[in-house]
Design brief:
Layout (H helix, E strand, L loop, with lengths): L6 H17 L19 E7 L5 E8 L5 E10 L2 E10 L4 E13 L5 E6 L7 E6 L5 E2 L12 E5 L2 E5 L4 E6 L2 E8 L10 E5 L5 E6 L2 E6 L6 E7 L1 E5 L5 E7 L8 E7 L4 E4 L6 E7 L5 E6 L4 E7 L6 E3 L27 E7 L4 H20 L3 E7 L5 H10 L6 E2 L3 H6 L7 E6 L2 E7 L4 H10 L10
Parallel strand pairs: 25-26, 26-27
Antiparallel strand pairs: 1-23, 2-3, 3-4, 4-5, 5-6, 6-7, 7-8, 9-10, 10-11, 11-12, 13-14, 14-15, 15-16, 17-18, 18-19, 19-20, 20-24, 21-22, 22-23, 25-28, 28-29
């Protein structure tokens, strides 16, 4: 068995968990009053609290039997943020395996985990951990094919899909050629942030911020849910998808878990908790594991019984994401930037790509200042993120570009439903938006389209 990474951290975790169990015999979470008097049948349990000062990089994933959790833990080490894949036995709270990395996802059989290793620093590696032996297969696939994996089995063969819309089969822990790309469909394109069903037939993807279900190959199945959200996960029988979405469509602060019934084309609200719930993942018996952040509890939870909750029809239509809201909406006091071109970057404290993109935006703004061009960069952290988390990220990454405060309705007004989202304003008017993280060169080219020339940074 491999020796866990940061073994002393594992011992500290066990002591900390025992302390919490003694201190908190009752649940620390408070459910909100049911809307319209409807009863919420969801049963919650706390599966793993986070350690003090511990963060989570993106999603967590649960094994098919619900007994083991994998996630990327973030903590400060010598002034730097370190991300470590932790695979934890939820019954004993012991770390079964740990290695610097991120983006772990369980095989449908619950015996293997694919993840992106960063143990060699910048030299990343796609790996598979085997639960039965503890062994790790390395160099599974080219890193260039993408990460943020999901795993299916088609005709007895393992198939991996990445967030870059690339997919490939596995044989003996190696990716087989040909590597394939998700095809574009009329009007919706290929979509972004895709996750694949366990049988490999369908993918849940996002088009202009709303959830779309389509076939992996071709466009013969299409369901546009009209719902905003992120990181949808399929149930094992393929009937349901679960994802997190803004509470009440953005009218309330925070995020909740939604389940869509693909057969009935209805939606079910899973959570009615204070704070925010993110990144649900299914067990084989129909429970959901998810991450929860509130003043009462920070960590991972399990939910069951939610399919008894009232179902509602999916929206028949939705407000177009493109909005004519002016830049002045973000400046109610009228103190707008004195620049012709303004890039506004919407990010979240829990967002995977946002924290990677922010330092690059800081460097880009430095180039704007050095060149003396008529442009500015502004940041907006979405309102459900903890203020302490936002401030810590700004401090650790030494960000100097302005950060604005907004409310949930501002996100709706600008059509921001995916993080990060960047909006380009010229003379105070919104001219273009881009979803997802962008590279330095893409941002520079984008500014160039509006007459802003940015010199390349010195090496």
């Amino acid at each position: 068995m491999n020796r866990p990474y940061f073994m002393d951290y594992s011992y500290f975790r066990i002591i900390f968990m025992l302390f919490l169990c003694i201190l908190n015999a009752k649940s620390l979470l408070i459910a909100s009053p049911p809307p319209n008097g409807r009863k919420n049948f969801t049963v919650y349990s706390e599966s793993l609290p986070l350690l003090p000062e511990e963060g989570v990089f993106a999603y967590s994933r649960i094994s098919s039997d619900g007994n083991r959790l994998s996630y990327a833990s973030e903590r400060m080490v010598n002034g730097e943020v370190k991300r470590t894949i932790n695979i934890i036995d939820l019954k004993t709270r012991k770390i079964l395996y740990s290695e610097p990395g991120m983006d772990s996802y369980w095989a449908p059989d619950g015996k293997r985990v694919i993840f992106l290793s960063t143990r060699d620093g910048d030299d990343m590696d796609v790996c598979i951990w085997h639960a039965e032996t503890g062994k790790v297969a390395r160099n599974v696939a080219p890193v260039e094919l993408g990460a943020y994996f999901s795993w299916s089995v088609v005709n007895g063969k393992d198939l991996i899909l990445t967030q870059e819309n690339q997919y490939y089969n596995l044989e003996n822990d190696k990716a087989l050629r040909p590597y394939r790309t998700v095809s574009a469909c009329p009007e919706i394109g290929a979509g972004s942030q895709p996750m694949i069903s366990r049988d490999g037939r369908l993918i849940a993807t996002f088009v202009r911020g709303t959830l779309v279900v389509r076939s992996l190959k071709g466009c013969n199945y299409l369901l546009e849910t009209q719902l905003p959200g992120g990181k949808a996960d399929f149930s094992y029988d393929g009937r349901y998808i679960a994802f997190h979405a803004p509470k009440d469509g953005g009218k309330s602060k925070g995020y909740e878990i939604i389940v869509v019934d693909l057969h009935m084309r209805t939606m079910i609200k899973v959570t009615d908790l204070e704070g925010s719930s993110y990144y649900p993942a299914w067990t084989k018996d129909g429970r959901l594991s998810f991450r929860h952040d509130s003043d009462k509890f920070r960590g991972f939870m399990m939910a069951s019984g939610f399919l008894k909750n009232s179902a509602e029809p999916l929206p028949a239509s939705h407000t177009p994401l493109r909005s004519d809201a002016p830049l002045s909406r973000l400046y109610p006091k009228g103190d707008l930037p004195a620049h012709r071109v303004v890039l506004v970057n919407f990010w979240a404290g829990w967002c995977v790509h946002c924290r990677n993109e922010l330092p690059m935006l800081e460097r880009l703004r430095g180039q704007l200042r050095s060149a003396g061009v008529d442009a500015e960069i502004v940041g907006v952290c979405e309102p459900s993120s903890f203020r302490s988390d936002r401030d810590a990220i700004v401090r650790r990454q030494k960000l100097t570009f302005p950060q604005l405060d907004v409310n949930a309705m501002d996100l709706v007004a600008f059509g921001v439903q995916v993080f990060p989202t960047s909006l380009m304003f010229v003379d105070g008017k919104l001219v273009e938006r881009r979803y997802g993280a962008q590279s330095y060169d893409k941002f520079a080219e984008w500014f160039k389209q509006y007459g802003i020339m940015i010199p390349k940074p010195k090496s």
